[in-house]
Specification:
4-stranded parallel β-sheet; 2 domains; Rossmann fold; 6-stranded mixed β-sheet; alpha/beta; 16% strand; globular
Length: 327
């Protein structure tokens, strides 16, 4: 009976590490690429960690009470995690979601009883998105100030500024990596969306080994909106943190943590995700493809021969079957 859990919140974390042995052999790598498979969380993404942490932190602080509705803006995975946990705890849930994400994300959230609203459907938000070329951080600020501030009985999660986000990665993700590698991890590679994963896990691992390297990933220039292509195929949930105005950088991104940034284009992320599905039997999303691609580039360097490179794979590829990812 002791092994029977009472809530999905008890199933979050302790995700496994898997060395991508076949992919290493295919590429002739002399470094080890060790994937942290976050799709083993109950709602198949790393965002389950922060969803639980931010909700329970709000409950403890009295910011979230019975009868309230949880509200968030997201590219999808955080919304799914929040919707599931909100359902399990009896809260309402509403999400403002980026238009271009896969249909699976909308359907997942609705399945948990959540309400989905596209950002472009909110006129104040659409105006700032059009003006800034799709600045997600600016859109959230406008939504909070001009729409959500007028409502009562809601809790706006605000993952890009909520300190419970990086904190849970420092408390769980980092220690899991350290313990499961017996402290032999040399390099951590992760994409940056809100910055919470890199900042939190990186902070813990740097405390354990100051010589450990943290590699943060942002989209390459060809994967960002521009005048000739305002809506290029993007790496879902991955946002730039260097070479952009200060106000566009999420507050949870601690830029003192990472040692190097790597830029990855969407086509490189796609190709990599397809490859590892065929070599190692893991089905992951675009950000995971980007993370593996970056890890391989780091692993090819002579100074990293024989090193253990842990790469965080954020979610499942099952969330991308309606897109062109696996075509």
């Amino acid at each position: 009976m002791a092994a029977i859990h009472q809530s999905i919140t008890e199933l979050i974390g302790k995700t496994p590490l898997l060395e991508l042995v076949n992919y290493e052999k295919k590429l002739g790598l002399n470094a080890k690429i060790i994937a942290k498979l976050e799709y083993f969380n109950p709602n198949q993404s790393v965002k389950d960690r922060i969803a639980r942490a931010m909700i329970e932190d709000a409950e403890e602080k009295g910011l979230l009470k019975p009868g309230d509705t949880i509200v968030e803006t997201t590219s999808g995975n955080t919304g799914i995690g929040l919707a599931a946990i909100a359902a399990s705890k009896g809260y309402g849930f509403r999400v403002y979601i980026q238009d271009q994400v896969s249909e699976e994300r909308f359907k997942n959230i609705r399945a948990f009883g959540g309400e989905t609203i596209k950002l472009s459907e909110v006129k104040e938000v659409k105006a700032v998105l059009d003006e800034t070329g799709g600045d997600f951080v600016a859109a959230i600020k406008v939504l909070e100030e001009k729409v959500l501030s007028k409502e009562s009985n809601i809790f706006f999660v605000n993952q890009i500024e909520n300190p419970a986000n990086p904190s849970v990665h420092e408390q769980t993700t980092g220690p899991e990596i350290w313990e499961d590698t017996d402290g032999t991890v040399d390099i951590l590679v992760a994409c940056v969306g809100t910055g919470g994963t890199v900042s939190g896990a990186g902070k813990y691992l740097k405390k354990k080994n100051p010589d450990l390297k943290i590699i943060a990933i942002q989209p390459g220039p060809g994967s960002l909106p521009n005048e000739s292509d305002p809506l290029p195929p993007d790496i879902t949930g991955v946002h730039p943190f260097e070479g952009v105005p200060e106000e566009r950088i999420p507050k949870n991104m601690d830029r003192s943590i990472y040692d190097e940034k790597v830029e990855v284009e969407t086509y490189q992320a796609y190709e990599t995700a397809r490859d590892v599905a065929r070599t190692d039997g893991i089905l992951v999303g675009t950000s995971s493809g980007a993370a593996i691609y970056a890890a391989v580039q780091i692993g090819k360097r002579e100074e990293n021969r024989g090193k253990n490179i842990v790469v965080i794979l954020a979610d499942t590829g099952l969330r991308y079957l309606s897109t062109k990812l696996f075509e």
